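Exercise 7. Given the encoded structure of a 392-residue chain, write a plausible sequence.
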C-alpha cells in the first residue's frame, strides 16, 4: 500500500498534547507546533484496522497478553537489527520514561550517582533528580562538526563511582546513531567500573541513509549482562497515546524484580488497544515504516536546503536517526531567553528550546520534522520572515 504523508490530518479534535497544550506551554495559541515528539501522520493501516476490529467487539475488559506479543517484538528486533532476544526476558511497561524512573528507584539506592550525556532528552535529568539520586553529567563534545562522547571525562567520572548510566541510542536531540565502536568504548568503561547501563533505544527504528542502529545489549555477552534496554513501538509507529513499551532484562532474576514493581503498582497489563496495536505494528507495519522514513529524510533535506538558501543564519543538522532536527541558531546572536521569545513571538513557532536538554545547548532549538511538508514549509517561511526582520 502506498501512503500519502503529504495529507494534513486535522488534529483539532484529536486531544493532542502537541496542539492543545501549546497555549499553556508557550503562552500563546497561534503557533505552529513542532515540539513534542509525535508524528502528524496517521499510523500504518494494519494498526488502525486492528484497533477498529477491537473497538467493534464493544467489550473492553481486563486484558490477557498472549505469548505472541513478545514473540513478534523479538522477530522485529531480529529482522530490523539482527538482535536475538529471548521473549521471556521482555516485560511490558506503560512507557519508557516510567521504566527509567522505576529502574532508577528499584535498581539503585538514594544518593547513588547516575551518569547522563547532555544535551539529552530532558526527562533524563528529571528521573534522576526526582528519585533523589545524584545527577552526574558527561557532556557530549563536538569533534569535526559532529557530537561525540567524551570517554576521558567519562572514565574520570566512573573512577569516582557511579551506579548507572542512561544511554540514549540513537541520541535525542542531536540525532547521532552511535557506531558500534563508540558503544564498545562506552560499554567497556561501564563494565570496568561496575556501572549498569540503561539503554533507551526508543528511536532505534528511525534511522536514515547509510546509518545502522547497533543494539547496545547485542554487542557482547558481558554487555548484555550489564544492560537493561528500554524500547517501544510508540515513536516508530506514532502510538505514544497507547502507552505501551518494552523493557528487556539480562536475566530472569532482574526481570522478576521489575515485574514485582509493576505488580505492586498493578500496572502489568496492556490496555486493550495497545495489545492489538503493538502486535499489528510489529507484524505488518514495516512497509509503512520504510515509507515514513523516506518521507522524513526528504523533510530533513528540505529543511537543510531551505535554510541554506533563505536563512543561512539558521543551521539545521541532518539527523542520522530520530525525526528531530537539531538547529544551531547561534547565528542570530540571541541569548537563550531572547531566542525562546524570538521563536514564539516573532516566528510564531512552538519548538523545544536547546537549553531544556542541558547547559551546553544554548542557542539551539529542536524541530520535530515528522509532519507533512506543507506544515514545515509554512513554519520555515515564518522563520525566514522573523529572521529578516531581526537582522534588518
Ligand atoms: C529518548 C526518549 N526516551 C523516551 C521517550 C518517551 O517515551 P515514553 O513516551 O514511552 O515514556 C522519548 C520521547 O520523545 C524519547 O525521545
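Solution.
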Amino acid at each position: 500500500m502506498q501512503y500519502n504523508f503529504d495529507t494534513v490530518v486535522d488534529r483539532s479534535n484529536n486531544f493532542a498534547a502537541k496542539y492543545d497544550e501549546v497555549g499553556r506551554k508557550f503562552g500563546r495559541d497561534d503557533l505552529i507546533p513542532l515540539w513534542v515528539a509525535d508524528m502528524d501522520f496517521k499510523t500504518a493501516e494494519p494498526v488502525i484496522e486492528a484497533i477498529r476490529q477491537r473497538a467493534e467487539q464493544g467489550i473492553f475488559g481486563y486484558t490477557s497478553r498472549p505469548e505472541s506479543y513478545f514473540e513478534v517484538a523479538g522477530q522485529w528486533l531480529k529482522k530490523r537489527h539482527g538482535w536475538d532476544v529471548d521473549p521471556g526476558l521482555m516485560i511490558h511497561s506503560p512507557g519508557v520514561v516510567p521504566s527509567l524512573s522505576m529502574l532508577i528507584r528499584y535498581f539503585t539506592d538514594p544518593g547513588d550517582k547516575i551518569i547522563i550525556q547532555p544535551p539529552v532528552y530532558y526527562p533524563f535529568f528529571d528521573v534522576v533528580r526526582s528519585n533523589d539520586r545524584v545527577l552526574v553529567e558527561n557532556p557530549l563534545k563536538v569533534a569535526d562538526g559532529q557530537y561525540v562522547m567524551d570517554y576521558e571525562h567519562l572514565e574520570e567520572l566512573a573512577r569516582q563511582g557511579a551506579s548507572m548510566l542512561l544511554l540514549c541510542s540513537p541520541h535525542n536531540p542531536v540525532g547521532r546513531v552511535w557506531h558500534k565502536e563508540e558503544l564498545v568504548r562506552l560499554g567497556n568503561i561501564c563494565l570496568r567500573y561496575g556501572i549498569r547501563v540503561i539503554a533507551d533505544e526508543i528511536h532505534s527504528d528511525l534511522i536514515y541513509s547509510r546509518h545502522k542502529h547497533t543494539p547496545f545489549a547485542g554487542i557482547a555477552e558481558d554487555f548484555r549482562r550489564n544492560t537493561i534496554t528500554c524500547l517501544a513501538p510508540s515513536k516508530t509507529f506514532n502510538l505514544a497515546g497507547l502507552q505501551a513499551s518494552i523493557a528487556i532484562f539480562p536475566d530472569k532474576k532482574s526481570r522478576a524484580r521489575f515485574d514485582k514493581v509493576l505488580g505492586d503498582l498493578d500496572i502489568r497489563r496492556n490496555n486493550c488497544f495497545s495489545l492489538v496495536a503493538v502486535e499489528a505494528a510489529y507484524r505488518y507495519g514495516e512497509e509503512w515504516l520504510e515509507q515514513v522514513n523516506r518521507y522524513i529524510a526528504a523533510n530533513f533535506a528540505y529543511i537543510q536546503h531551505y535554510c541554506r538558501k533563505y536563512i543561512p543564519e539558521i543551521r539545521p543538522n541532518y539527523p542520522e536517526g530520530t525525526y528531530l532536527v537539531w538547529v544551531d541558531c547561534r547565528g542570530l546572536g540571541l541569548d537563550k531567553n531572547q531566542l525562546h521569545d524570538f521563536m514564539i513571538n516573532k516566528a510564531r513557532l512552538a519548538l523545544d528550546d536547546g537549553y531544556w536538554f542541558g547547559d551546553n545547548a544554548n542557542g539551539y532549538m529542536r524541530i520535530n520534522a515528522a509532519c507533512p511538508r506543507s506544515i514545515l514549509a509554512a513554519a520555515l517561511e515564518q522563520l525566514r520572515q522573523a529572521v529578516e526582520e531581526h537582522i534588518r
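Remark. Residues 17-44+287-391 form a domain with the Aspartate Aminotransferase, domain 1 fold (CATH 3.90.1150.10). Students should compare their own answers with the one above.
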